[in-house]
Amino acid sequence: MQTHIATTPFGRRPASLGQITSQAKARTMPKEASVQKWEVFQYIREARDQVGATDRSLAILNALLSFHPETTLAGDGELVVWPSNEQLMARANGMPATTLRRHLAVLVDCGLIIRRDSPNGKRFARKSRGGEIEQAYGFDLASIVARAEEFRELAETVKAEKKAFRVSRERLTLLRRDIVKMIDAGIEESVPGNWGRVLQAYQAIVGRLPRTASRQLIESINSELEDLWVEIRDTLESFTKTQNPDANESHSGAHIQNSNPDSNSDFENSSGKYEEAATFAETENVRSLPKRDLPLGIVLDACPNLRELAQGGQIRHWRDFLAAAEAARPMLGVSPSAWKDALKVLGEQQAAITVAAIYQRSAQINNAGGYLRSLTERARDGKFSTWPMVMALLRAKLDGGKPEEPAGKGHGAPQTSPPPSGEGLQVSDALRRSLERPKW
Description:
The protein is mainly α. It contains 20 helices and 6 strands. It has 3 domains: 17-146, Arc Repressor Mutant, subunit A; 167-241, no CATH class; 264-401 and 431-435, no CATH class. Helix content is 54%, strand content 5%. Strand 5 (124-127) and strand 6 (133-140) form a beta hairpin. Helix 16 crosses helix 17 (348-360).
């Protein structure tokens, strides 16, 4: 007696064209076809995004495959398994029934399994007197056999894409490292060039990288970084060719040129101090200054220009502030050795505040690298603190925001028109009184 094989699901579950397509592919499977079920399952797992499966649905597929008694799935064999929901939940590590039904539907929609529902929706097998299976109702695994080659090709494509992505990421890392260190070398060795422009170009390129980038975008960024890398390399190599070989590394030559641009003899004037130090953050009475750290909000009020170097133009935390200060360092022409010395003496946060203040006053400071070394030496002698530097910037900002007094009114006359809302610096009364004290 011939039994009809159902092509539609039981109950309210609708049939779809995707299910019809899966069944059509299963019917075209050659009878002599056979695959190793766990090998094909590995292909499906690697290509799950392309197939449309999820981690939970693959856990159920793994359980369904475990109910088939043979390791090999053959086209001329029985490919229907009929476990109950309780048995599936047990092999799927106790997955809830609602979750099980939802992800079984995902497997059906992906064309990985075919429903062979009985008239009453139960899963069972009818056997002959000899014990052979005449009719089985459950989940048909024929699609896995019929699409095994498709899954293998998808898995190989995914592997190739992952490898290409990994290579692109490695290239990006190497280019970024080379460019940053070559810029530092150019500044350190006083190589002629607009290193501030080069750094800005580098930051503009890497600034387009989102938190998660596609391989195509990374390769595009790599192409631009490659051009910049070639430009920097050619600049450095051209400079080295113009130098006397005995000038840099020679132990037997009569004259050895000092290539360190941050040495005191190259950057300090004859008096041993910088002109900027006399007008910006100089105090001998460091012990009288507050011992607590400067609040980030006050530092940003004093040094607002640093925000233009921050990611997205915003500084919310000290780590954002430190990253922006690190970006400002080469733009100011501060060598890595001067920055390393400042970090060692001042500490990371205080050194970043110092660089931010120098960046704020960069138009008035001719030699930022030498000035930072001067302040570092004063800090080493206990004669420098970032408090006077920040307070001086705040005082200048307050003085610049004061309205002019009307003619004929004395110093004590009340102010008749307050500054417009949102203009000027908003500070507390205590801080305002401290700013109105004599110069530090």
